[in-house]
Every structure is written in C-alpha cells, then in structure tokens.
Amino acid sequence: MHRAISINTLCLPPASLGAQVDQVARIGARGISPELDQVLAFGTDESARVIRDAGLAVATLTHRAFGFATSAETEAARERLLRTLDVAAQTGADSVIMTTGGRGELSWPDAAERFVEAVTPCAEAARAAGMRLGIEPTSHLYADVSIVHRLADTVALARRAGIAVMIDLFACWADADLEVAIAEAGADIALVQVSDYIYGDRGLPCRAVPGDGAVPLDRVIPAIAHTGFSGWYDLEVIGPRLAAEGIEAGLARAAAYLAPLLETVR
Questions:
Q1: Which residue, 8, 126, 186, 229, could crosslink 33 as a Cys pair with Cβ 3.0–4.6 Å?
Q2: Structural domains in the chain, sorted by start
C-alpha cells in the first residue's frame, strides 16, 4: 500500500482501538486516524504502544466539534481541546482534526469572529507544541457542529484563526471554486480525507470507494499535490456500500485505486 495512505477508524466496525489497529495493519496501511474517545477508552499510553508496535503512524487524531456559541461552551471547548492536544502529542499524532462547532442563532460573520477568538489560545498551544490543528469542511446537514461547508470558507476561517485546513473531499468536491480554494489553501493543508460519491445516493452516510463515483480524483489530487502537500491521504469511506462489499476488501481496493494517482504526483 502507498506510504501516504492512512485509514480512518470511522471506516471500521465498532471495536477496541487495539482490534482496529490490528485490522488497519492487516489491510496494509501505514497510518491510522483514531478518535479521541477511542484513545481515552483504550488508554493513552497503551494506544501509543499498540500503534507503534504495529508499525503505524497516527495520521490525525479526531477531536470532533469545538464550541463557541456561548461563554460557557467556549470555556469547556478550550479545556477539552487542550487535553486533546496533549493526547495527540503523547500518541505521536501528526495533527488534530475538528469541526468548528455550531453557530446557534449567530449570523455567519459573528460566528466566524467568535470562533477565531475562542480558538486562539488553543491555536497558540498547538503551534508551541509543533502540532497541526485543523478544521474541515462539512455537509450543511451537519450545521449543528460546523459553520464551514465550502472549502473556500474553511480556508478563509482557518487562516483567520491561524490553524490548518483538512480537506474532506466528500464535503467539498462539488464546490464551483474547488481548485481555486485548493490553491489558496497551499501550505495550510494538513490532511486530505478521500472517499467518493455515486450520483443518486441521498441518505448519509453514503460514501463510496474512491474510483467508483463522480468525485474527479484524477484532477483534484494533482491539484492538491501542486500546492506542495506531501502528507496523509486518509481513507474515510463510511456507509452501506463499503459494508456490502466487505470493509477490508473495499479499503484495499480504494488504496489500489489511489496509489497510481499518488505516484504520478510525487
């Protein structure tokens, strides 16, 4: 499997982190992307050990949503994110990925300003620790946990906050200005999440194996590489299509599809 491909544990059946580490290693990926709660449940030191012993790197640690809509939410969100940064450092994670949190009744400009103010101490802590902290675009159906849905908005907000950009292609592949936004993100890109979409799928989660659908990966991946990005391409294939095929078979096929694209741009 290509050295830049990692597997997000969201792809895998529910299990202990140790079992999922074994599965990712068996599939042949070099990196794994667990969730914070998985690591805490398994134990931070034990998580670091089993991942290291399996020969894997932590591509990113998923923090899920930040929060900023109220003062109390902001205080709690900062404390939780600072703890996540500590866990990420202990497990050797390359980055921490999150969504912004919802805006409640705030207008978008007010929400953006509030997010930047709220996350600034955590952004400073991440830089001091040499950690990439990033936000990702999300479907508008997840507006309760994010205020950025287009990649261009994600890039603009991340830059204002002094943090990185995680490109979830499933969320933003149809943006009219996608390649412009990729170029604008440039060196701020810290991770790329890869899956596909098949026309006609309506209910989430409905991600497909890369190469099976409409996402123009043969154009988008070279555009990302042209920015100088040389980090992880994280498989995040979720939903009934992968389950029906067989998770390990589908992820192996996804990696086989991506490998030639990655080799042509590196």
A1: 8
A2: 5-265 (3.20.20.150)
